[in-house]
Amino acid sequence: MELLLIRHAKPFRLSDPAGADPDLMPEGEDQAKLLAKAMAAGRYGQVDAVVSSPMRRAAQTASVTAAALSHEISFDDRLVELDHGWTTYGVVHTYTDRATLLTDMNAGRLGDNSFDLDEFRSRVVDGIESLIVDDERTVAVVCHGGVINAYLSHIIGAERMFFTEPFYTSVSRVIALPGGYRQVMSLNETDHLR
């Protein structure tokens, strides 16, 4: 089967003492529409199911694609981003140096926040692996940049979990075959945004 790991579209940056869970910006809404149009036109083959993180930015992105494909969305809490429950969204944008950002994230910190690398990766891998069945289906998984890094670094056996910065609505393809065989077919496809 094939997994299409899709980062959500561009959201607002915000702070909220109750937990920052932003909606998509107008630019993000446009990105989500372009992704959905490409999916409906077959750019990524026949998509048989749409699964999403329940966080707003992912759910809103998934809803546009699911509507274009006439699918329901399945939500999985294991696909939430590492910043779930934090009071600020957009900490990554305060970094001016990508190397420092990746170094901090690989040390389990982001700005003033911290997270458990092993727990995060374990949760993500369990969530994504639970979607895999031995058939020819293609599943679109709308999630987050950290989630994509956690799963892909697991597949390739990378020493560091965070190694790429997926673009908004980018698609990374993984082939999952019986016996636990996984192959990364592409990373960060954004042709649909052109």
Write up what this structure looks like.
By secondary structure, the chain is of the alpha/beta class. The protein has helices at residues 26-40, 56-69, 98-106, 117-129, 145-156, and strands at 2-7, 14-15, 49-52, 73-75, 88-89, 109-110, 113-114, 138-143, 171-177, 181-184. The strands form three sheets. It has a six-stranded mixed beta sheet with strand order 4-3-8-1-9-10. Strands 2-5 form a two-stranded antiparallel ribbon. Strand 9 and strand 10 (181-184) form a beta hairpin. Helix 1 (26-40) runs parallel beside helix 2 (56-69) and helix 4 (117-129) packs across helix 5 (145-156). The longest helix is centred in the N-terminal third of the chain and has 15 residues, at 26-40. The protein is globular. It starts with a strand and ends in a 10-residue tail after the last strand. GO terms for molecular function: phosphatase activity. InterPro entries: His_Pase_superF_clade-1, His_PPase_superfam, PGM_Phosphatase. It comes from Gordonia aquimaris.
Q: Please state the overall shape, judged from the principal axes of the Cα atoms.
A: globular
Number of strands: 10
Q: Largest sheet, order of strands side by side?
A: 4-3-8-1-9-10
DSSP helical segment count? 5
Strand content: 15-25%
Largest sheet: 6 strands, mixed
Brief account:
This protein has 194 residues and is of the alpha/beta class. It has 5 helices and 10 strands.
Task: List the main descriptive attributes of the protein structure presented here.
about 190 residues, alpha/beta, 6-stranded mixed beta sheet, two-stranded antiparallel ribbon, about 30% helix, Phosphoglycerate mutase family protein, His_Pase_superF_clade-1, phosphatase activity, His_PPase_superfam
